[in-house]
Amino acid sequence: MTVAAYTPPGVGLLAVGIVSEVFGPHGETLPGFDFALCTDRPGPVPTDLGVPLTVTHGLDKLASADLVIALPWAGFRTPPAPAVLDALSAAHGRGSLVAAHCVGAFALAAAGLLDGRRATTHWRFAELLARRHPNVTVEPDALYVDEGRVITGAGAAAGFDLCLHLLRREYGAAMANAVARDMVLPSHRDGGQAQYLTAPVPEDGHDERLAEVLAWARENLHQPLPVAELARRAVMSRRTFARRFTAATGTTPHAWLRNLRLSSAEELLETTDLPVEEIARRVGYGSAAVLREQFVRRRGVPPRSYRRSFTNTP
Fold it and tell me: What per-residue confidence (pLDDT) applies to 2?
C-alpha cells in the first residue's frame, strides 16, 4: 500500500508521529509501506509546537497513493487552499481510501467528501464541524467512523485506533495485532467506543481489580464469561461492576466481550486452518452457527468467506 499523509502548515506533530510509526518500518518480520508526508509546498513546514518539519513531497504524491490521510493542523478553522481540496477529491474519485485524523476531518468536509456520510473528529470540535457542514452526520463520541472509502477518526492518540483499524480492515487482524505489539499498544478498540472517558486513569483499588479481571477474561474466552462472574471476580456487585466497566472502557461488558471474541476469531481464521467449529469453541461461542450469525452481523461476511480473503483455505 502506498500511503500519503497530507501535512498542512501548522500540522500536529503528534499526528505526524502516529502515522509515521504505524506505516513506517517495523523490521524484517512485517511488510513495509511506501509511506510519505506531502504538503502544499515542499520544504520546511511549521508545526503546532513551533518546530519546523522538512517535507519533500508536494500534492502530486496524493495522486498516486492508495491511502490518503489528512492530518490535523492548528489553522483548521480556515479551509485549505483549493488545490488541496481538488487533490483530496481527485484521490477519492479515482478510488483511493481517504481518511482524516482529528480535525483533519474539516479538510475532507471542505472538499465535500463527508456530505451525506457519518463522520467524527475530536470531541471538542464536533459541534463546530456539524454546524459548518450540516450535510454531515457528526458522531461526536465515536473513536472512528468507517464509511467505506472515507474514514474519519477522533483526536490525539485515537489516531492509533484509526490507523490500526485501517490495517485490520485491509490486511487482517494478524497484521494489525503484530504492528500494535511492535508499538506496545492495544490491538483493537471498536470505533463505537467512547472517545472521552470521565476518569481514564484508575482512581483506586477497584480499577486495579477491574484490569485484572479483563486480563483474565482475555485468557479465558472459551468460557461463557457472564457479567455476574466477572463482577464476582472483581469483588463488586453486578451494578457497580457495569458502571465502573463503562467508565473505564467507554463500552458495556457485553459489547467489549463481543468485540474481543470476534477479533480473536478473525485472527484464528487468518492464521490457522482450524475448523470454524473449533474456532467458535475457542472464542466462546456455543456453535459455529452462533459465530456465523455474529460474524455476518458485525463484519458483513460469514467466517469462511472472511478466511478466503486472507488464505487459500477452503
Answer: 95
